[in-house]
Amino acid sequence: MRLTLEIWRQKDATDPGRFVRYDLPEVNHHMSFLEMLDVLNQQLIGKGEEPVAFDSDCREGICGMCGFVIDGTPHGPQRNTTVCQLHMRHFKDGDTLVIEPFRARAFPVIKDLIVDRSAFDRIIQAGGFISVNTGSAPEANTLLVPLHNSEKAMDAAACIGCGGCVAACPNASAMLFVSAKVSQFALLPQGRPEAARRALGMVRAMDACGFGNCSNHRECEKACPKEIAIVNIARLNREYVKASFASHES
Ligand code: SF4
Ligand code: FES
To answer: Which ligand 2 atom sits closest to the C-alpha of 55?
Structure first.
């Protein structure tokens, strides 16, 4: 099939950037979206032009490296799918696709479709871990975890840190990401001892990084390739309020 691509090209963080049009006359519908861009890049390299820069690693939907916006939607039109797992059969012959980087103040563009997502690392460093040394694996039944809690924790832990939720949110909020990372620990007994410090630290880091606040648009939930639900944001808010009161009391 034939496609026209309008791709955001930006040399570096200081370049104002612009859309550039490319025609791809023979796109195989079995290709993934990133393979289609690989083909475009081979053609650009063959002509002595600069290939389009984009992030990827696993290309299996598990690492969170890939991500850009296709026709206004982070990760493209297919629900619950990272852009590396999106296949060209979901598009039609003759389509024009507009491809641009995630737009958020806290995610500055590095080049073309690559943005700097190190703000997420700073949020994780502020509390997204368990610091106790648990030694070797204990016998499983010594620490009982209710089944519904373990399942909710596993669902939250599915967040791959891609940043699609931030790009989808009109406020460029990182609440869905932070709520998933807080929830995966808050729901398990191992995460409770540091729960208050974690919620306060991660929310403060999120604010310091320049992300906006949540105003319940729910665009994040729609764009998330890992089905992270906004019920996690309600849990984050509860954890944060509890932790705030506790820190005033102590
Ligand atoms: S919540 Fe979803 S969209 Fe946001 S970083 Fe995690 S996986 Fe990506
Ligand atoms: S490249 Fe790893 S999730 Fe897409």
So the answer is: 1
